Amino acid sequence: MAAEYNREVSHSATNPAPPAGMEGQPGPLLRLVRDQRVAFLLVGVVNTVVGYGWFVLFQFTIGRYWGYLASLAFAHVFSVLCAFVLYRRLVFRVHGHVWRDLGRFELVYLVSISINFVLLPLLVEVGHLPPLLAQASIIFVTTLISYFGHTRFSFRRAAKPEPRGSVSEERIT
After folding, report:
1. Domain range list for the chain
2. Which pLDDT value is given to residue 148?
């Protein structure tokens, strides 16, 4: 039944196939909206709001003493863990390899946070923007990075080998 659903969703005109190498049953959100890009975007919006909330929380607590970059680092840890659970449960529904997936997921976010660590001081110190406004403006760039990274790397599975004796393995002599 799940395989039929995957085929049905993946090959319809309005729903492109999921990225190569993805496997598992569609997550609950994907079953509802029937388009992985839309499901990813919805979870991304929730994660962005939650992540920005973490940044605000840490800015008003530890940020008072350690600065906005410390707030960014703490918010990053909490945001990544939250996002990993949301994407894995609601969108991708892959099974196994939790630690490998989390490591790959974090690698994508390390690229984003590295860019964030460069842009945030530039916008605050050079552009004279308040830290909360500067962080809000960086979200668009990091969202694009995370979309491409997660769909093509974080939850990717190796293609399953074709069974022996399949048409593609036969040799014509």
Report:
1. 2-158
2. 82
Please tell me what DSSP assigns to residue 39.
Answer: H
Written as one letter, the residue type at 172 is I
pLDDT in the model for residue 27: 67
The residues of the chain scoring below 50 in pLDDT are 1-22, 168-173
Q: What is the DSSP letter of 168?
A: G
pTM: 0.64
CA distance 149 to 172: 40
Contact yes or no for 112/145 (Cβ under 8 A) = yes
15 contacts 34 by C-beta, under 8 angstroms: yes
36 near 18, Cβ under 8 Å?
yes
CA 22 → CA 14, 100, 110, 153, distances in Å? 19, 15, 22, 10
Instruction: Evaluate whether 49 touches 43 at the Cβ level (below 8 Å).
Output: no
Residue 88: helix, strand or coil by DSSP? helix
